[in-house]
Amino acid sequence: MSFTATQLRLYFIMGSQDCPDQDPIDVLEQAIAGGITMFQFREKNSDLTLSETVALGRHLREICRQHNIPFIVNDRADLALILDADGVHVGQEDMPAREVRRLIGPDKILGVSAENIAEARQAIEDGADYIGVGPMFLTSSKADAGFPIYPEALQSIREQLEEPFPIVGIGGITASNAHKVMAAGADGIAVISAIAKAEDPKQAAEALVQAINSTKM
Ligand SMILES: Cc1ncc(COP(=O)(O)OP(=O)(O)O)c(N)n1
Ligand SMILES: Cc1nc(C(=O)O)sc1CCOP(=O)(O)O
Ligand SMILES: [Mg+2]
């Protein structure tokens, strides 16, 4: 699947740990109906065995394929290859991005976390297609996320990059603060709880789409 920055517009991330009271398959289907543009399978600190993870991943992957939504796997290039994912997302503590690029080849999507300009430049050199910058705000979905760096940090990276490059903001983003991230120069927002923990994930995704579209630049 070829990648464009517009696919980052509403990037939904989820694993079974993020929606303990709902079926992740239903949540993903509703999120797609609500307008998400990209999906990341992030099964982390969950109760699933490896074979349950593969089975869930296959199901979620198939749903994304049916709706032409890029399916990205968090952290694990091996799982991405097993699931024939469209790409992998790695952070600074994960397998080095340049090794992941070598493993997945030139055509798959590679996302890399970066929280400053040095990490952003290195990610681009290593073959990233986009960078994830965060946490924008306080988050309860990632215990080791650290303190918020706020949209100002994303804006600073955007301004220091020599060329336009796809950037998605992440961490604590809701329909109420999404406009701040977009106004800072993000191509899109990545969320877990704003959709996965919503009573009505379709409606939650629609509210996020509206917030993104109504941002004045
Ligand atoms: C789009 C996006 N951006 C950032 C991250 C965070 O990645 P990482 O720092 O490796 O943390 P974990 O998600 O692995 O806990 C992401 N997953 N997606
Ligand atoms: C997975 C992840 N990465 C982050 C980063 O800052 O790199 S914050 C985060 C959690 C995002 O979940 P929520 O939308 O519920 O805050
Ligand atoms: Mg990671």
Describe the overall structure.
This protein is an alpha/beta fold. The chain contains nine helices and eight strands. The chain has one domain (5-213): Alpha-Beta Barrel (TIM Barrel), CATH 3.20.20. It has helices spanning 24-34, 50-67, 77-82, 97-104, 117-126, 150-160, 178-183, 193-196, 201-213; strands spanning 10-14, 38-41, 71-74, 87-90, 109-113, 130-133, 167-170, 188-191. It has an eight-stranded parallel β-barrel, surrounded by six helices. Helix 1 (24-34) runs parallel beside helix 2 (50-67) and helix 1 packs parallel to helix 9 (201-213). The model has no long low-confidence stretch (mean pLDDT 97).
Question: Could you provide a short overview of the structure?
Answer:
This protein is of the alpha/beta class. Helices cover 40% and strands 16% of the residues. α1 packs parallel to α2.
Strand and helix layout:
Blueprint: E1 10-14, H1 24-34, E2 38-41, H2 50-67, E3 71-74, H3 77-82, E4 87-90, H4 97-104, E5 109-113, H5 117-126, E6 130-133, H6 150-160, E7 167-170, H7 178-183, E8 188-191, H8 193-196, H9 201-213
Parallel strand pairs: 1-2, 1-8, 2-3, 3-4, 4-5, 5-6, 6-7, 7-8
Bound molecules: ligand LCLJCK34, ligand 3NM and magnesium ion.
The ligand Cc1nc(C(=O)O)sc1CCOP(=O)(O)O is lined by residues 13, 113, 132, 134-135, 139, 141-142, 145, 170-173, 191-194.
Domain Thiamine phosphate synthase/TenI: 10-195
Pathway: Cofactor biosynthesis; thiamine diphosphate biosynthesis; thiamine phosphate from 4-amino-2-methyl-5-diphosphomethylpyrimidine and 4-methyl-5-(2-phosphoethyl)-thiazole: step 1/1
Binding site for 4-amino-2-methyl-5-(diphosphooxymethyl)pyrimidine: 40-44, 74, 113, 142
